[in-house]
Specification:
The complex is a heterodimer of chains A (136) and B (380). Chain A has 136 residues and is α+β, with helices and mostly antiparallel strands. Chain A is built from six helices and three strands, in the order H-E-E-E-H-H-H-H-H. The radius of gyration of chain A is 14 Å and the shape is globular. Chain A starts with a helix and ends in a 15-residue tail after the last helix. Chain B is of the alpha/beta class. Chain B folds into two domains: 234 residues, 3-Layer(aba) Sandwich (Aspartate Aminotransferase, domain 2); 123 residues, Aspartate Aminotransferase, domain 1 (Alpha-Beta Complex). Chain B is 39% helix and 14% strand. Chain B is built from 13 helices and 13 strands. In chain B, the strands form three sheets. Chain B has a seven-stranded mixed sheet, sandwiched between helices. In chain B, strands 9-10-13-12 form a four-stranded antiparallel sheet. In chain B, helix 5 links the parallel strand 3 and strand 4. Classes of the chains: A alpha+beta (136), B alpha/beta (380). At the A-B interface, helix 1, strand 2, strand 3 and helix 2 of A face helix 10 and helix 12 of B.
Protein backbone atom coordinates (compact mmCIF):
# COMPACT_ATOMS: atom_id res chain seq x y z
CA UNK A 1 0.00 0.00 0.00
CA UNK A 2 1.38 3.38 -0.94
CA UNK A 3 0.02 6.89 -0.52
CA UNK A 4 0.27 9.58 -3.20
CA UNK A 5 2.58 12.56 -2.69
CA UNK A 6 -0.45 14.77 -2.11
CA UNK A 7 -1.76 12.48 0.63
CA UNK A 8 1.64 12.53 2.31
CA UNK A 9 1.81 16.32 1.96
CA UNK A 10 -1.59 16.81 3.64
CA UNK A 11 -0.78 14.17 6.25
CA UNK A 12 2.54 15.80 7.11
CA UNK A 13 1.32 19.40 6.93
CA UNK A 14 -2.40 19.27 7.59
CA UNK A 15 -4.28 22.50 6.71
CA UNK A 16 -6.91 24.14 8.92
CA UNK A 17 -6.34 22.07 12.04
CA UNK A 18 -8.28 22.97 15.16
CA UNK A 19 -11.69 23.98 16.42
CA UNK A 20 -13.74 27.16 16.15
CA UNK A 21 -15.00 28.35 19.53
CA UNK A 22 -18.10 30.16 18.18
CA UNK A 23 -18.70 27.77 15.28
CA UNK A 24 -21.92 28.09 13.30
CA UNK A 25 -21.96 24.38 12.52
CA UNK A 26 -20.25 21.29 13.90
CA UNK A 27 -20.18 17.85 12.30
CA UNK A 28 -18.66 14.48 13.16
CA UNK A 29 -18.13 11.35 11.11
CA UNK A 30 -16.73 7.96 12.11
CA UNK A 31 -15.93 6.80 15.61
CA UNK A 32 -12.80 5.84 17.52
CA UNK A 33 -13.88 2.20 17.73
CA UNK A 34 -13.37 1.67 14.01
CA UNK A 35 -10.19 3.72 14.11
CA UNK A 36 -11.17 6.91 12.30
CA UNK A 37 -13.05 9.94 13.58
CA UNK A 38 -13.20 13.47 12.17
CA UNK A 39 -14.76 16.63 13.62
CA UNK A 40 -15.38 19.64 11.41
CA UNK A 41 -16.27 23.14 12.62
CA UNK A 42 -17.49 25.84 10.23
CA UNK A 43 -18.22 29.57 10.29
CA UNK A 44 -20.86 30.75 7.81
CA UNK A 45 -21.40 34.24 6.48
CA UNK A 46 -23.73 35.25 3.64
CA UNK A 47 -24.23 31.61 2.76
CA UNK A 48 -20.53 30.93 2.41
CA UNK A 49 -18.11 28.89 4.50
CA UNK A 50 -15.78 31.64 5.72
CA UNK A 51 -13.76 29.53 8.15
CA UNK A 52 -13.34 25.79 8.64
CA UNK A 53 -11.27 23.69 11.03
CA UNK A 54 -10.89 19.94 11.58
CA UNK A 55 -9.62 17.45 14.11
CA UNK A 56 -8.99 13.80 13.24
CA UNK A 57 -8.11 10.63 15.08
CA UNK A 58 -7.12 8.22 12.37
CA UNK A 59 -4.71 6.89 9.82
CA UNK A 60 -2.74 8.82 7.21
CA UNK A 61 -5.66 8.76 4.76
CA UNK A 62 -8.13 9.98 7.39
CA UNK A 63 -5.94 12.98 8.26
CA UNK A 64 -5.17 13.83 4.62
CA UNK A 65 -8.81 13.59 3.48
CA UNK A 66 -9.92 15.83 6.36
CA UNK A 67 -7.25 18.40 5.50
CA UNK A 68 -8.16 18.31 1.80
CA UNK A 69 -11.89 18.57 2.56
CA UNK A 70 -11.31 21.80 4.50
CA UNK A 71 -9.31 23.20 1.58
CA UNK A 72 -12.02 22.28 -0.91
CA UNK A 73 -14.80 23.72 1.27
CA UNK A 74 -13.24 27.01 2.40
CA UNK A 75 -14.92 29.98 0.66
CA UNK A 76 -17.56 27.82 -1.01
CA UNK A 77 -21.33 28.33 -0.73
CA UNK A 78 -23.22 25.91 1.46
CA UNK A 79 -24.69 24.35 -1.65
CA UNK A 80 -21.24 23.82 -3.11
CA UNK A 81 -20.09 22.44 0.23
CA UNK A 82 -22.88 19.88 0.28
CA UNK A 83 -21.90 18.86 -3.25
CA UNK A 84 -18.34 17.95 -2.22
CA UNK A 85 -18.26 14.15 -2.31
CA UNK A 86 -15.86 11.56 -0.97
CA UNK A 87 -14.81 10.94 -4.56
CA UNK A 88 -14.02 14.64 -5.07
CA UNK A 89 -11.77 14.51 -2.00
CA UNK A 90 -10.03 11.31 -3.12
CA UNK A 91 -9.53 12.74 -6.63
CA UNK A 92 -8.10 15.99 -5.27
CA UNK A 93 -5.53 13.88 -3.39
CA UNK A 94 -4.58 12.02 -6.61
CA UNK A 95 -6.38 8.96 -5.35
CA UNK A 96 -6.33 6.74 -2.27
CA UNK A 97 -5.32 3.10 -1.85
CA UNK A 98 -8.44 0.97 -2.52
CA UNK A 99 -8.59 -0.30 1.06
CA UNK A 100 -8.79 3.30 2.30
CA UNK A 101 -11.45 4.58 -0.10
CA UNK A 102 -14.35 3.73 2.12
CA UNK A 103 -13.36 3.55 5.77
CA UNK A 104 -10.89 6.42 5.97
CA UNK A 105 -12.56 8.88 3.65
CA UNK A 106 -15.13 10.30 6.06
CA UNK A 107 -14.41 14.01 6.10
CA UNK A 108 -16.94 14.91 3.40
CA UNK A 109 -19.60 13.32 5.63
CA UNK A 110 -18.39 15.41 8.58
CA UNK A 111 -18.53 18.54 6.38
CA UNK A 112 -22.09 17.77 5.30
CA UNK A 113 -23.05 17.14 8.93
CA UNK A 114 -21.56 20.52 9.93
CA UNK A 115 -23.47 22.32 7.17
CA UNK A 116 -26.70 20.55 8.12
CA UNK A 117 -26.05 21.42 11.75
CA UNK A 118 -25.80 25.09 10.73
CA UNK A 119 -28.95 24.87 8.60
CA UNK A 120 -30.96 23.19 11.34
CA UNK A 121 -29.96 25.74 13.98
CA UNK A 122 -30.09 28.95 11.89
CA UNK A 123 -33.48 30.64 12.08
CA UNK A 124 -33.72 31.25 8.36
CA UNK A 125 -35.19 28.34 6.51
CA UNK A 126 -32.41 27.34 4.10
CA UNK A 127 -32.42 30.54 2.04
CA UNK A 128 -29.25 29.59 0.21
CA UNK A 129 -30.12 26.03 -0.64
CA UNK A 130 -32.23 25.48 -3.69
CA UNK A 131 -31.85 21.75 -3.94
CA UNK A 132 -31.06 19.69 -0.91
CA UNK A 133 -28.91 17.03 -2.41
CA UNK A 134 -27.74 13.99 -0.56
CA UNK A 135 -24.19 13.14 -1.42
CA UNK A 136 -22.89 9.69 -0.71
CA UNK B 1 18.82 9.19 5.74
CA UNK B 2 19.92 6.44 8.10
CA UNK B 3 17.26 3.78 8.40
CA UNK B 4 16.52 1.99 11.66
CA UNK B 5 14.87 -1.42 11.49
CA UNK B 6 12.75 -2.18 14.57
CA UNK B 7 10.50 -4.84 13.05
CA UNK B 8 12.51 -8.00 13.71
CA UNK B 9 9.42 -9.98 14.73
CA UNK B 10 8.24 -9.57 11.13
CA UNK B 11 11.49 -10.77 9.63
CA UNK B 12 15.24 -10.28 9.93
CA UNK B 13 17.98 -9.56 7.43
CA UNK B 14 20.31 -12.49 6.91
CA UNK B 15 23.58 -12.63 8.77
CA UNK B 16 26.59 -12.42 6.44
CA UNK B 17 27.96 -15.67 7.84
CA UNK B 18 24.66 -17.34 6.95
CA UNK B 19 24.84 -16.05 3.37
CA UNK B 20 28.42 -17.28 3.07
CA UNK B 21 27.51 -20.72 4.37
CA UNK B 22 24.72 -20.96 1.79
CA UNK B 23 26.60 -19.75 -1.28
CA UNK B 24 28.28 -23.03 -2.35
CA UNK B 25 24.93 -24.82 -2.28
CA UNK B 26 23.48 -22.54 -4.94
CA UNK B 27 26.20 -22.99 -7.51
CA UNK B 28 28.68 -25.78 -6.77
CA UNK B 29 27.21 -28.42 -4.43
CA UNK B 30 23.80 -28.09 -6.01
CA UNK B 31 22.76 -31.74 -6.26
CA UNK B 32 19.52 -33.38 -5.19
CA UNK B 33 20.00 -35.07 -1.81
CA UNK B 34 18.09 -38.11 -3.11
CA UNK B 35 20.57 -38.72 -5.97
CA UNK B 36 23.28 -41.36 -5.65
CA UNK B 37 26.04 -39.52 -7.52
CA UNK B 38 28.65 -37.32 -5.89
CA UNK B 39 26.57 -34.15 -6.30
CA UNK B 40 23.70 -35.84 -4.51
CA UNK B 41 25.98 -37.19 -1.79
CA UNK B 42 27.31 -33.68 -1.11
CA UNK B 43 23.79 -32.39 -0.73
CA UNK B 44 22.85 -35.33 1.51
CA UNK B 45 25.89 -34.69 3.68
CA UNK B 46 24.93 -31.00 4.06
CA UNK B 47 21.37 -32.02 4.92
CA UNK B 48 22.51 -34.50 7.59
CA UNK B 49 24.89 -32.04 9.13
CA UNK B 50 22.25 -29.28 9.24
CA UNK B 51 19.76 -31.66 10.83
CA UNK B 52 22.35 -32.51 13.49
CA UNK B 53 22.85 -28.78 14.20
CA UNK B 54 19.11 -28.15 14.66
CA UNK B 55 18.74 -31.30 16.79
CA UNK B 56 21.68 -30.19 18.97
CA UNK B 57 20.21 -26.70 19.34
CA UNK B 58 17.06 -28.27 20.79
CA UNK B 59 18.76 -31.16 22.59
CA UNK B 60 16.75 -33.51 20.36
CA UNK B 61 17.52 -36.54 18.17
CA UNK B 62 18.10 -36.05 14.44
CA UNK B 63 15.14 -38.29 13.50
CA UNK B 64 12.90 -35.92 15.46
CA UNK B 65 13.60 -32.98 13.11
CA UNK B 66 11.69 -32.52 9.86
CA UNK B 67 12.51 -29.59 7.61
CA UNK B 68 9.54 -27.60 6.29
CA UNK B 69 9.03 -24.39 4.33
CA UNK B 70 8.68 -22.35 7.55
CA UNK B 71 6.56 -21.63 10.58
CA UNK B 72 3.24 -21.60 8.74
CA UNK B 73 3.81 -25.03 7.24
CA UNK B 74 5.09 -26.41 10.55
CA UNK B 75 1.97 -25.22 12.36
CA UNK B 76 -0.33 -26.60 9.64
CA UNK B 77 1.61 -29.88 9.70
CA UNK B 78 1.27 -30.32 13.47
CA UNK B 79 -2.42 -29.49 13.66
CA UNK B 80 -3.65 -31.22 10.51
CA UNK B 81 -1.48 -34.28 11.11
CA UNK B 82 -2.72 -35.11 14.58
CA UNK B 83 -6.02 -36.64 13.40
CA UNK B 84 -9.66 -35.91 14.11
CA UNK B 85 -10.68 -34.91 17.60
CA UNK B 86 -10.64 -32.02 20.04
CA UNK B 87 -7.88 -29.38 19.98
CA UNK B 88 -7.12 -26.92 22.79
CA UNK B 89 -5.36 -23.71 21.81
CA UNK B 90 -5.23 -20.06 22.89
CA UNK B 91 -7.07 -17.08 21.47
CA UNK B 92 -3.82 -15.19 20.78
CA UNK B 93 -2.07 -17.70 18.51
CA UNK B 94 -0.53 -16.74 15.19
CA UNK B 95 -3.00 -16.86 12.26
CA UNK B 96 -1.26 -20.01 10.98
CA UNK B 97 -2.63 -21.76 14.08
CA UNK B 98 -5.97 -19.96 14.42
CA UNK B 99 -6.99 -20.23 10.78
CA UNK B 100 -5.89 -23.86 10.66
CA UNK B 101 -8.07 -24.49 13.72
CA UNK B 102 -10.97 -22.80 11.98
CA UNK B 103 -10.41 -25.01 8.94
CA UNK B 104 -10.27 -28.13 11.12
CA UNK B 105 -13.39 -27.03 12.95
CA UNK B 106 -15.15 -26.86 9.57
CA UNK B 107 -13.93 -30.42 8.91
CA UNK B 108 -15.16 -32.14 12.01
CA UNK B 109 -12.74 -31.15 14.79
CA UNK B 110 -13.80 -29.39 17.98
CA UNK B 111 -11.59 -26.51 19.07
CA UNK B 112 -11.35 -24.75 22.43
CA UNK B 113 -9.82 -21.28 22.30
CA UNK B 114 -8.55 -20.37 25.76
CA UNK B 115 -8.77 -16.76 26.93
CA UNK B 116 -5.76 -14.83 28.22
CA UNK B 117 -5.44 -12.35 31.07
CA UNK B 118 -4.69 -8.64 30.63
CA UNK B 119 -0.96 -9.43 30.21
CA UNK B 120 -1.66 -12.05 27.57
CA UNK B 121 -1.06 -15.10 29.78
CA UNK B 122 -2.92 -18.39 29.42
CA UNK B 123 -4.02 -19.89 32.76
CA UNK B 124 -2.75 -23.52 32.89
CA UNK B 125 -5.82 -24.29 35.01
CA UNK B 126 -7.97 -23.41 31.99
CA UNK B 127 -6.00 -25.90 29.89
CA UNK B 128 -6.68 -28.64 32.42
CA UNK B 129 -10.41 -27.92 32.60
CA UNK B 130 -10.74 -27.83 28.80
CA UNK B 131 -9.46 -31.41 28.42
CA UNK B 132 -12.04 -34.03 27.50
CA UNK B 133 -11.90 -37.69 26.45
CA UNK B 134 -11.67 -36.66 22.79
CA UNK B 135 -8.77 -34.16 23.21
CA UNK B 136 -6.06 -34.99 20.66
CA UNK B 137 -3.74 -32.01 20.96
CA UNK B 138 -2.88 -29.02 23.12
CA UNK B 139 -1.24 -26.21 21.13
CA UNK B 140 -0.15 -23.07 22.97
CA UNK B 141 2.51 -20.75 21.56
CA UNK B 142 5.75 -20.27 23.47
CA UNK B 143 5.97 -16.49 22.99
CA UNK B 144 3.51 -14.19 21.32
CA UNK B 145 4.56 -12.44 18.11
CA UNK B 146 2.74 -9.17 18.85
CA UNK B 147 3.10 -8.55 22.57
CA UNK B 148 6.03 -10.84 23.39
CA UNK B 149 4.35 -12.52 26.37
CA UNK B 150 5.99 -15.85 27.23
CA UNK B 151 3.49 -18.55 28.17
CA UNK B 152 3.93 -20.97 31.10
CA UNK B 153 4.69 -23.81 28.66
CA UNK B 154 6.34 -25.96 31.35
CA UNK B 155 3.12 -26.02 33.38
CA UNK B 156 0.97 -26.58 30.30
CA UNK B 157 3.36 -29.31 29.13
CA UNK B 158 3.12 -31.05 32.50
CA UNK B 159 -0.68 -31.04 32.32
CA UNK B 160 -0.55 -32.46 28.79
CA UNK B 161 1.88 -35.17 29.90
CA UNK B 162 -0.24 -36.14 32.92
CA UNK B 163 -3.25 -36.53 30.65
CA UNK B 164 -1.39 -38.37 27.89
CA UNK B 165 -2.11 -35.66 25.29
CA UNK B 166 0.57 -34.43 22.86
CA UNK B 167 1.67 -30.83 23.46
CA UNK B 168 2.60 -28.60 20.54
CA UNK B 169 4.14 -25.16 20.87
CA UNK B 170 4.82 -22.56 18.21
CA UNK B 171 8.35 -21.42 19.05
CA UNK B 172 8.87 -19.28 15.97
CA UNK B 173 9.33 -16.06 18.00
CA UNK B 174 11.08 -17.56 21.02
CA UNK B 175 13.75 -19.75 19.42
CA UNK B 176 17.14 -18.14 19.98
CA UNK B 177 15.71 -15.50 22.32
CA UNK B 178 14.55 -17.42 25.34
CA UNK B 179 15.38 -20.83 26.68
CA UNK B 180 13.65 -23.88 25.17
CA UNK B 181 14.03 -27.16 27.06
CA UNK B 182 12.00 -29.89 25.35
CA UNK B 183 12.34 -32.24 28.30
CA UNK B 184 11.65 -29.84 31.14
CA UNK B 185 8.79 -28.24 29.24
CA UNK B 186 7.33 -31.60 28.14
CA UNK B 187 7.10 -30.37 24.56
CA UNK B 188 6.15 -33.10 22.06
CA UNK B 189 5.91 -31.04 18.89
CA UNK B 190 7.55 -27.68 18.19
CA UNK B 191 7.49 -25.28 15.23
CA UNK B 192 10.55 -23.31 14.15
CA UNK B 193 11.27 -20.73 11.46
CA UNK B 194 14.60 -19.61 10.05
CA UNK B 195 13.91 -16.04 8.92
CA UNK B 196 13.22 -14.75 12.44
CA UNK B 197 16.77 -15.66 13.49
CA UNK B 198 18.77 -14.01 10.67
CA UNK B 199 18.40 -17.04 8.41
CA UNK B 200 16.80 -17.32 4.96
CA UNK B 201 13.06 -17.16 4.35
CA UNK B 202 11.14 -20.21 3.14
CA UNK B 203 12.67 -22.70 5.56
CA UNK B 204 11.76 -23.99 9.00
CA UNK B 205 11.36 -27.20 10.92
CA UNK B 206 8.97 -29.25 12.96
CA UNK B 207 10.29 -31.19 15.94
CA UNK B 208 8.22 -34.33 16.57
CA UNK B 209 9.15 -36.35 19.64
CA UNK B 210 9.82 -40.05 18.97
CA UNK B 211 6.61 -42.01 19.36
CA UNK B 212 4.28 -39.10 18.56
CA UNK B 213 2.40 -39.77 15.34
CA UNK B 214 1.80 -36.90 12.94
CA UNK B 215 0.48 -37.66 9.44
CA UNK B 216 2.31 -36.02 6.53
CA UNK B 217 0.96 -32.76 5.14
CA UNK B 218 2.91 -33.05 1.89
CA UNK B 219 2.52 -36.33 0.01
CA UNK B 220 4.92 -37.47 -2.69
CA UNK B 221 8.49 -38.77 -2.60
CA UNK B 222 10.32 -40.36 0.27
CA UNK B 223 12.06 -37.19 1.48
CA UNK B 224 12.40 -36.74 5.24
CA UNK B 225 11.73 -40.49 5.61
CA UNK B 226 8.39 -40.11 3.90
CA UNK B 227 7.17 -37.57 6.41
CA UNK B 228 7.51 -34.45 4.24
CA UNK B 229 7.67 -34.92 0.47
CA UNK B 230 9.46 -32.45 -1.78
CA UNK B 231 13.09 -31.98 -2.81
CA UNK B 232 14.96 -30.56 0.15
CA UNK B 233 15.87 -26.87 -0.02
CA UNK B 234 19.54 -27.46 0.69
CA UNK B 235 20.78 -23.83 0.60
CA UNK B 236 17.88 -22.86 2.86
CA UNK B 237 18.49 -25.75 5.25
CA UNK B 238 22.22 -24.98 5.43
CA UNK B 239 21.44 -21.30 6.08
CA UNK B 240 18.88 -22.15 8.75
CA UNK B 241 21.38 -24.41 10.52
CA UNK B 242 24.06 -21.71 10.39
CA UNK B 243 21.62 -19.14 11.77
CA UNK B 244 20.59 -21.54 14.54
CA UNK B 245 24.18 -22.24 15.55
CA UNK B 246 24.92 -18.50 15.63
CA UNK B 247 21.79 -17.96 17.75
CA UNK B 248 22.96 -20.58 20.25
CA UNK B 249 26.53 -19.23 20.25
CA UNK B 250 25.35 -15.65 20.83
CA UNK B 251 22.39 -16.50 23.03
CA UNK B 252 23.58 -14.80 26.23
CA UNK B 253 25.17 -11.75 24.63
CA UNK B 254 22.16 -11.22 22.33
CA UNK B 255 19.76 -11.48 25.24
CA UNK B 256 21.68 -9.04 27.39
CA UNK B 257 21.96 -6.57 24.51
CA UNK B 258 18.27 -6.83 23.54
CA UNK B 259 16.96 -6.52 27.08
CA UNK B 260 19.07 -3.42 27.62
CA UNK B 261 17.77 -1.76 24.45
CA UNK B 262 14.19 -2.89 25.05
CA UNK B 263 14.09 -1.47 28.56
CA UNK B 264 15.79 1.71 27.42
CA UNK B 265 13.04 2.14 24.81
CA UNK B 266 10.14 1.31 27.14
CA UNK B 267 11.40 3.43 30.05
CA UNK B 268 12.48 6.26 27.75
CA UNK B 269 9.10 6.45 25.99
CA UNK B 270 7.18 6.33 29.26
CA UNK B 271 9.33 9.02 30.81
CA UNK B 272 9.19 11.36 27.85
CA UNK B 273 5.52 10.97 26.90
CA UNK B 274 2.29 11.01 28.92
CA UNK B 275 -0.36 8.30 28.58
CA UNK B 276 1.92 5.56 27.26
CA UNK B 277 1.35 1.98 28.38
CA UNK B 278 3.11 -1.34 27.81
CA UNK B 279 1.10 -4.13 26.16
CA UNK B 280 1.99 -7.66 27.26
CA UNK B 281 3.56 -9.05 30.39
CA UNK B 282 5.95 -6.64 32.16
CA UNK B 283 8.51 -9.38 33.00
CA UNK B 284 7.66 -12.61 31.19
CA UNK B 285 8.23 -11.16 27.75
CA UNK B 286 10.63 -11.62 24.85
CA UNK B 287 13.89 -9.70 25.25
CA UNK B 288 13.32 -7.86 21.96
CA UNK B 289 9.64 -6.86 22.19
CA UNK B 290 8.34 -3.45 23.25
CA UNK B 291 4.66 -3.10 22.35
CA UNK B 292 3.53 0.36 23.41
CA UNK B 293 0.11 1.91 23.48
CA UNK B 294 -0.02 5.66 22.84
CA UNK B 295 -3.39 7.00 23.84
CA UNK B 296 -5.35 9.38 21.56
CA UNK B 297 -3.30 8.62 18.44
CA UNK B 298 -3.83 6.09 15.71
CA UNK B 299 -1.04 3.61 15.00
CA UNK B 300 -0.77 3.95 11.25
CA UNK B 301 -0.29 7.70 11.53
CA UNK B 302 2.49 7.17 14.03
CA UNK B 303 4.00 4.43 11.87
CA UNK B 304 4.05 6.83 8.90
CA UNK B 305 5.74 9.57 10.93
CA UNK B 306 8.35 7.10 12.15
CA UNK B 307 8.83 5.80 8.61
CA UNK B 308 9.48 9.36 7.39
CA UNK B 309 12.27 9.49 9.96
CA UNK B 310 13.57 6.15 8.71
CA UNK B 311 12.27 4.08 11.61
CA UNK B 312 10.45 0.83 10.71
CA UNK B 313 7.85 -0.53 13.17
CA UNK B 314 4.46 -2.23 12.98
CA UNK B 315 1.05 -1.60 14.52
CA UNK B 316 -1.98 -3.48 15.78
CA UNK B 317 -4.24 -0.88 14.24
CA UNK B 318 -6.92 -2.10 11.89
CA UNK B 319 -6.09 0.71 9.51
CA UNK B 320 -2.75 -0.76 8.54
CA UNK B 321 -3.94 -4.30 8.06
CA UNK B 322 -5.29 -5.62 4.78
CA UNK B 323 -8.28 -7.09 6.62
CA UNK B 324 -9.10 -3.79 8.38
CA UNK B 325 -9.56 -5.83 11.56
CA UNK B 326 -7.87 -4.70 14.75
CA UNK B 327 -5.33 -7.11 16.25
CA UNK B 328 -7.00 -10.23 17.70
CA UNK B 329 -4.21 -10.41 20.27
CA UNK B 330 -4.80 -6.91 21.64
CA UNK B 331 -8.57 -7.52 21.58
CA UNK B 332 -8.02 -10.68 23.68
CA UNK B 333 -6.23 -8.55 26.31
CA UNK B 334 -9.50 -6.68 26.77
CA UNK B 335 -8.21 -3.35 25.42
CA UNK B 336 -10.63 -0.73 24.13
CA UNK B 337 -10.64 -0.56 20.31
CA UNK B 338 -9.29 3.01 20.25
CA UNK B 339 -6.35 1.88 22.40
CA UNK B 340 -5.66 -1.03 20.07
CA UNK B 341 -5.52 1.42 17.17
CA UNK B 342 -2.83 3.36 19.04
CA UNK B 343 -0.52 0.41 19.70
CA UNK B 344 2.91 0.17 18.11
CA UNK B 345 5.19 -2.87 18.12
CA UNK B 346 8.92 -2.23 18.28
CA UNK B 347 10.93 -5.45 17.89
CA UNK B 348 14.67 -5.16 18.25
CA UNK B 349 17.50 -7.10 16.70
CA UNK B 350 21.11 -8.03 17.20
CA UNK B 351 22.39 -5.16 15.06
CA UNK B 352 20.40 -2.36 16.74
CA UNK B 353 22.40 0.08 18.84
CA UNK B 354 21.83 2.33 21.85
CA UNK B 355 22.35 5.29 19.55
CA UNK B 356 19.44 4.13 17.37
CA UNK B 357 17.15 3.82 20.40
CA UNK B 358 18.21 7.30 21.55
CA UNK B 359 17.29 8.62 18.11
CA UNK B 360 13.84 7.02 18.30
CA UNK B 361 13.31 8.48 21.76
CA UNK B 362 14.42 11.83 20.38
CA UNK B 363 11.93 11.97 17.52
CA UNK B 364 8.98 10.19 19.13
CA UNK B 365 7.63 12.83 21.57
CA UNK B 366 7.25 15.45 18.84
CA UNK B 367 5.30 13.06 16.62
CA UNK B 368 2.97 12.12 19.45
CA UNK B 369 2.46 15.81 20.28
CA UNK B 370 1.66 16.59 16.68
CA UNK B 371 -0.86 13.78 16.34
CA UNK B 372 -2.45 14.50 19.69
CA UNK B 373 -2.77 18.17 18.76
CA UNK B 374 -5.03 17.22 15.85
CA UNK B 375 -6.84 14.40 17.69
CA UNK B 376 -10.43 15.05 18.82
CA UNK B 377 -9.97 12.45 21.57
CA UNK B 378 -7.56 14.45 23.70
CA UNK B 379 -10.14 17.06 24.64
CA UNK B 380 -7.54 19.76 24.27
Amino acid sequence: MEYSEKVMDHFTNPRNVGEIQDADGVGTAGNPVCGDMTHIHIKVSDGRITDIKFKTFGCGAAIATASMTTELALGKTLEEGLAISRNNVADALDGLPPVKLHCSNLAADALHAAIEDYLSTSESDTPYITTHQQTE
Amino acid sequence: MERIYLDHAATTAMDHEVVQAMMPYFTQASGNASSLHSFGREAKHALDSARQTIADALNAQTDEIIFTSGGTESNNFALKGIGKGHIITSSIEHPSILKTCRYLNDHGCDVTYLPVDADGMVDPGDVESAINSDTKLISVMHANNEIGTIQPVDEIGAIARDNGIPFHTDAVQSFGKTEIDLQKMNIDILSLSSHKIYGPKGIGALYIRRGVKIDPLMHGGEHEKGRRAGTENIPGIVGFAKAASLAIERFSSDREHLIKLRDMLIDGAMNAIDDVFLNGHPVKRLPNNANLRFKFVEGESLLLHLDMKGVAVSTGSACSSASLEPSHVLLALGLAPEDIHGSIRFTLGRENTEEEIRYVLDVLPEMIDKLRAISPLTGR
